[in-house]
Amino acid sequence: MPNRLADAISPYLRSHAENPVDWHPWGAAAFAEARRRDVPVLVSIGYATCHWCHVMARESFSDPALAAYLNEQFVSVKVDREEHPDVDASYLAAAGAFTQNLGWPLNVFVTPAGRPFFAGTYSPPTPMPGHPAFREVLNAVTDAWTNRRAAVEDSAAGLAEALAQAAPAAVGELPDQSRLADTVARLATAEDPVYGGFGGAPKFPAAPTLGLLLDRADGRELALRTLKRMGASPLRDPVEGGFFRYAVNRDWSDPHYERMLYDNAQLLELYSRAWMLTGERWARIVAEGLVGFLGAVLQLPDGGFASAQDSESTVDGVRVEGGYYALDEDARRVQAPPALDAKVLTGWNGLAIGALALAGHAFADDAALHLARRAADRLLQAHRRADGALVRASIDGRLSAAVATLEDYGMFAGGLLELATATGEVRYAVVARELIDRAMPGDGSTAGREPGMTFAAPEGADPVLTAQGLDLATDPSEGAYPSGLTAIASAAWRLHLLTGAGRYRDAATAGMVRLVGSGDINPLAFGAALRLVNGLTTPVEQLVVVTPDGASGRPVAAMAGSALLDAARRRTGVVAVVTERQGAAFAAAGFELFADRTTRDGLPTAYLCRDFVCRLPSTDAAALG
């Protein structure tokens, strides 16, 4: 039996390489083999730090008898959802027709044409209440395929057609401030008044929704309460500073101990902003701990950030979940830390770059800026092809064949824009604009184009999904982090605020109309989109502080020496601190916000604007109000 996973980019796939199951990686070859043999396909989706994925691998996929049955009756495909998020999104949408308990591992049974006809998540080796044994599931699927083929094919075709017609409706208009106020009120009623957070158990950080609340005066206290309680809870590792993915219990105890890059990057942004808004010590302590965690644990030797750290580890020779994190700092030194998923994802790295850049600006922290620069420069060197196209993923310098998604273009562009304004280095902003333009076919206008489709993944959807008619034109899924559409729209809106080019604002607005323009929107599921809508529908402050060219090598180094620069650290709109020479470079590159920005009397000088309507320049910190 060939081992097709041994050289995979994905550590998750490689962890299954020695299974007796005859696994195929995602690709057209697996479906061609299923057509040749006239058998269904098992598409099994997970990720490297997924606890129940590990459990099912040990219990079922390592069982020789069960593997022999799989090999005889199915073609089995293993997919890393982080490497192929569009595949995961399509099959998750399909799985919702068969189970309400969506999650991973996700096991979807499809026809050789790729059309799903049954799905489930974790299945135990022996029956449990509410959970048939995995062998029972396989027997039922085989029976249906063998004895009720016509019904299976009809059902699969109907589901495929329904999915194709389920794209978000391009109708309505952006939610106004009244609707957003109602949304905040709904979130307030969902708050756990004892332990913080939303709802009961399990309990997740809900970072995108907290961002919406933090940006709004009527939601800020709720966001700050939640962040403070969460930062002091068992969800946060007090030794290394990182947050775990979620907690099993309402009081944040019994975490699922995997630590994800996307969670920790988004939470760093929120705790940095919380400090900027309040000056509270607790917010700074948590933010600085997150900077330390990202640098010491998740940043790889080449500068990129690993996707996650595993929940399981070996402590004193025994493999346990969370055992490493129960140890204090000294005890950890003699144990091997949990493994990293060293897969570098462009989009998630973009989130980390942006958060570290913001923290570097807020705390005048050159170390945080250094971490962000290292990652950005590494990705620009290794994840951007000569023609400007992005790479979705890599590991140890090896590039994945998975196509880059809107998530990658949007999150990376957003991170580069944040880094550009924090460091004064226009090169990052220029590349960000090129990435956004690449994701906006044509001139970026909405004329003659379906509303909300201004943005498109430059390399197209996954080719296998496209051939099967299963690609989602717009993946609306959000929750733990922004959808690709929200990410690219957010970056385009920020680019508008730096350039004054209305086409970027219009494209962002059209995208959000498509995503949340009609119907009743769950704020816990669309927090990032609603946060962007809030920004699009309120006046935005823009602040440029210009320092003399000779004051220092970089403006952030002078932060502690100027009351004006200290005040700039606490502003939460679009803020850039540049030398005169850097400001001129931004202006020459077409970033209108920086045009004619010079110092007055050789002193740091502030230009405070609101939607490009600017006050007179001032050297007085009190003028910032």
TrEMBL record:
InterPro entries named in the record: 6-hairpin_glycosidase_sf (IPR008928), Ssp411 (IPR024705), Ssp411-like_TRX (IPR004879), Thioredoxin-like_sf (IPR036249)
Per UniProt, residues of the Spermatogenesis-associated protein 20-like TRX domain are 3-163
Matching SUPFAM superfamilies: Six-hairpin glycosidases, Thioredoxin-like
Origin superkingdom: Bacteria
Biological source species = Cryobacterium zongtaii
Biological processes annotated in GO: carbohydrate metabolic process
What is the name of this protein?
Thioredoxin domain-containing protein
